Amino acid sequence: VSHTTVSRVINGNKSVNEEAAKRVLKVIEEVGFIPNNAAQTLKTSHSNIIGVCVTETFNPYFVELIDTLELEARKRGYNILLHNSKHNPITEWESIQNFIARQVDGIILVPNGEYNIQRLNKLAIPTVIITKNRESLDSIGLDHKQAGKIAGENFIYAGHKKFGFIGTVPDEKYLGYKSVLYENGFELNSLINVKQTSTNNFLIQQDIEAYFNQADRLDFTCVFAANDIMALEFLKAAQKKGIRIPEDISLIGFDDTYLAKI
């Protein structure tokens, strides 16, 4: 057969005669041929790779996100190249530079604040920001401030008068939560501050247990956690102290990962 026919078979072109395609595939299997993707990229200027950079992988939310991104990419004939910035803007920029060097066809990024947004604006590579909303770039994200308001409204309508928050501040969920309390004549009674460096369950657990150890009693009857991991760690720490959820303290998490269904 011709070079063109072999090329069509390798690239999944359905126009090739079925019998000829079977013969080509049989020879490919016998000789162990593997297409040179780097050469194809040079020839076509397309790598069929999407660069994906997230801020962490310990959170089930990002695990589910990555799984879905890979599934949808494969459906469309793409693979993903995954990087984890670990909440470090320098590592994030190094990841972006690696995507550029690998000639990815697009970038999907969970950003570390605003550090690299202006640089991304100057790239010729199509880029989408996810989990955050940014006016200067295509982005897909929830309104975290509105989410905080919804959590606060639910507590207020349930009759609560003393409120707690678990998370890192400043945070849009925190700002929304605090603002709706203020609008209804309440204030935030307690903040369980999970430090920015707390990037795994153990460190989050330590931050929450440190709060329990220094507090004589909890001065809130409800608490909003910035994500499901924090909600679960609070639940476990409260149970150790004999505090019942939701009988003694009402608890709302965020992200609706599989942890929320335990």
Protein described:
By secondary structure, the chain is α/β, with parallel strands linked by helices. It is built from ten helices and nine strands. It has helices at 3-10, 18-31, 37-44, 60-75, 89-101, 117-121, 144-157, 172-183, 201-214, 228-240, and strands at 49-54, 79-84, 106-109, 127-130, 138-140, 163-167, 188-193, 222-225, 250-252. Strands 2-1-3-4-5 form a five-stranded parallel β-sheet, with helices on both faces. Helix 10 (228-240) links the parallel strand 8 and strand 9 (250-252). Helix 1 (3-10) packs across helix 2, helix 7 (144-157) packs parallel to helix 8 (172-183) and helix 9 (201-214) crosses helix 10. The protein is elongated.
In brief, what are we looking at here?
With 262 residues, the chain is an alpha/beta fold.
Strand content: 15-25%
Whole-number mean pLDDT: 87
How would you classify the helix and strand content by structural class? alpha/beta
Contiguous uncertain segments of 5+ residues: none
Give me the secondary-structure topology.
Layout (H helix, E strand, L loop, with lengths): L2 H8 L7 H14 L5 H8 L4 E6 L5 H16 L3 E6 L4 H13 L4 E4 L7 H5 L5 E4 L7 E3 L3 H14 L5 E5 L4 H12 L4 E6 L7 H14 L7 E4 L2 H13 L9 E3 L10
Parallel strand pairs: 1-2, 1-3, 3-4, 4-5, 6-7, 6-8, 8-9
